[in-house]
Design brief:
Structural class: mainly alpha
Number of domains: 1
CATH topology: Arp2/3 complex 21 kDa subunit ARPC3
Largest sheet: none
Order of helices and strands: HHHHHHHHHH
Distance between the termini: 12 Å
Strand content: under 5%
Number of helices: 10
CATH class: Mainly Alpha
Shape: globular
């Protein structure tokens, strides 16, 4: 468990953000296509490490595929409202019930898959990291998020704010490849209405979806013994 946690932290919190920043500052034009592929592969590394020698790994991957599909379809359905999407909520719910690694994978892959419809671009790796990180943190805070609706709503609000702030970093860097604080503040202020929409939609979707989806995930986990930690001597 300690090794798995260290790998997850190293990949999600150090390697991926460094890779994204390096790609933004160094490479030009179509770099984002290759960068997105690298982020996808890195997002799955801790998952495959966790699946090592597990009998139910194919079933677990199927559950993750379903959650990604729910997230992507939800983004399609609400495409007419720019900041009103269930992606964050589905990512958080996945992480709460299936773990941090599953949350990161669902968040990051939801971004890249849905962007085949919404449009791939240099923003894609930032979206992947933003939603993935939200899922990773939600998994680490799964117990209080399960127990308290108030904490769940607060986390949803903070997730909406953090997603917007991270995307504003991309906006600032992409202008000329440098980080300008005044430009970043201007981007944050300009995006306030959209940030508010992110936060509100997260709370609404969490309140609507957490119980029904969470109950189904718990039932499937218990029935098939999925997403459990097996200690080896």
């Amino acid at each position: 468990m300690r090794t798995k946690n260290l790998i997850s932290i190293g990949v999600f919190l150090i390697l991926i953000p460094m890779l994204i920043l390096l790609g933004t500052l160094v490479f030009k034009e179509k770099y984002f296509a290759y960068l997105s592929i690298l982020v996808v592969m890195l997002s799955l590394v801790p998952m495959f490490f966790a699946f090592e020698k597990k009998e139910n790994s194919s079933k677990e991957l199927s559950i993750l595929a379903v959650m990604i599909a729910v997230s992507v379809v939800g983004r399609f359905v609400f495409s007419w409202l720019p900041g009103f999407k269930p992606v964050t909520a589905v990512t958080i719910i996945t992480a709460i019930y299936l773990g941090s690694e599953a949350g990161f994978a669902v968040g990051s892959l939801s971004a890249v898959v849905s962007n085949f419809y919404f449009g791939q671009g240099p923003w894609t790796p930032f979206q992947m990291f933003s939603w993935g990180l939200i899922g990773f943190l939600a998994g680490m805070l799964s117990n209080p998020l399960k127990k308290s609706k108030v904490f769940l709503c607060v986390f949803g609000i903070l997730a909406g704010i953090s997603f917007s702030l991270t995307m504003d970093i991309w906006t600032t860097l992409w202008a000329d490849g440098t980080f300008n604080l005044s430009r970043y503040i201007a981007s944050v202020v300009t995006a306030l209405p959209l940030t508010t929409e992110y936060a509100v939609s997260n709370v609404l979707f969490l309140l609507l979806l957490t119980k029904p989806i969470g109950e189904k995930l718990e039932r499937v986990k218990k029935k098939y013994g999925l997403f459990t930690v097996h200690h080896r001597d």
